[in-house]
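Key idea: predict the complex, not the pieces.
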Amino acid sequence: MSNQRDFSRQSFLGSDSEDRLARLRVAIVGLGGGGSHIAQQLAHVGVGEIRLLDPDCIEPSNLNRLVGATQADVDAGTPKVDIARRIIQAIRPWIKVPIERQIWQKAIHFIQDVHVVIGCLDGYQQRGYLEGAARRYLLPYVDIGMDVTKVAENVFAVSGQMIMTRPGGPCLHCLGFLTPELLAREENRYGDAGINPQVVWTNGMLASLAVGEVMKLVTPWFPTHEPYTWLELDGNAQTVTPSEQPRYCLSTEVCPHHGGRDGLGDPFFTLAKISKR
Amino acid sequence: MKVLFRATAELVAQVRRDLSRPHEFADERVGFLSVRAASGYGHLVLLADRYYPVADQDYIPDFTVGARIGQDALRKALETSLIDSVGMFHVHAHDFPGKLGFSRVDLREQENFVPDFFNVCETMPHGALVMNETELAGRVWLSKADIRPIDEFDTVGARMEVVLGPRSDDTNFYA
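Result:
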């Protein structure tokens, strides 16, 4: 098996982009329809370490969108992290792929020392929690999600978003993405087209936007100064546009939702607990 | 275990701005960064929290070194560490060409005062940093006697910069 590397087709990303990507550690939380696409793309671009967190095994209903999954995986009930690791290492065997088969809150050490956290989670509350963890460890957070809403009989609106927030900038609450009303509504329903509707092409579009955002963060292919990115996908028209929502919601330059005293690091950290080897 | 130091680009820029201000008689300025910490998957993560510049009046005239700070400056840093339970990192800048690193005087002086922080906050790592316009370098104390180089520096801004430190277990690697 050859480990030969040739990134000439993406050399426009910067003369040292291959090294930048090779020393990058990215955590993907959720390896379903969106996360599996992202894992595959990060392997292609040459990210050196991709950490995978998901407690679930594949189910028959996942096969409509989970990249890399096979009928044999469904029959065997293969863990989603194992499927993603298999596809990553089939593309580039030298990539490190640590996995955790549990909810991310029980594997927080997996997130603390990466460079970017990508959230592909069901549920808005969970997104808020994960972004909070990213803030606590001074990490950029990239979020994707899609929704399907019934707008008339046999008519559905497919939509989605990719949002990147980073320490020092506005968070999902500041931007008006996570609102008290939305979080309350989540208690009652997820989508109108059945439980958690997802389709492969929309997942793929959102995943590509997320990977593009990671590349903007870590490679110098063009100047960028934005404190956040929020792109909205209209899945019916198949168009992507910057969200207008922050224009109406963003009122403060300093995020009041994260940080402050004891807002950084592990609150239970002590040197006595660490392995010094 | 490797050691990772992470700060926002905004905080690093604030430190650079402060350290580049002229002083009445000192050739360079000094400050302290408070840090929080976490133990990740194979890394000790040091998270820069706040910057504390040394006040103008807390410098002592000494033309044999770039800057000498008095007991008041150290006392204030020790108090911050004690009250907030944070690690403290001494920071200064070297704005001359060549490989970024500590001078022999830096190394000697750090070994005199950094261990004192363990008298007020023994649960957190403490250390020293040096920076120039583009880079950071430093070392961390995990106890009064356990000194390690910082292996990686992450600056988090619109661009995520990940810079690896020197690969050596020799704590005099910058000399």
